[in-house]
Amino acid sequence: AVRALGALGEHAAPHAGAVAARLEDKNQEVRMFAVRALRALGEHAAPHASAVAARLEHEDLAVRRSAVRALGALGEHAAPHLGAVAARLEDE
């Protein structure tokens, strides 16, 4: 379901909170798709920027990269997390 919401992009904006809740799912694949879905929501996911930024410290490189991309999609709403994003430059 999270993957499907991500595919809907901004049309899924009313469900951003439910998608963000999946960032804490037990299944790593669900967590990954939640980050990707929030990226697809763009600025509609702005209220969840801190939850996405917390994934910058995740043990899995793919999750960290997805979080960086998601924050990039949030534009100015990700500004408070620029330092944490810059710290991920070593992941490249």
Task: Tell me what the structure shows.
This protein has 6 helices and no strands. The chain has helices at 2-7, 16-21, 28-41, 49-53, 61-73, 82-87. The chain has 92 residues and is an all-alpha fold.
Structure, briefly:
This protein has 92 residues and is an all-alpha fold. 54% of the residues lie in helices and 0% in strands.
CA distance, first residue to last residue: 30 Å
Question: Could you give the count of β-strands?
Answer: 0
* Average pLDDT, all residues: 90
Question: How can the largest sheet be summarized?
Answer: none
Oligomer: single chain
Structural class: mainly alpha
Helix content: 40-55%
**How many H/I helical runs?**
6
Strand proportion: under 5%
Topology readout:
Layout: H1 2-7, H2 16-21, H3 28-41, H4 49-53, H5 61-73, H6 82-87
Helix pairs in contact: 3-5
Keywords:
single chain; 92 residues; mainly alpha; 6 helices
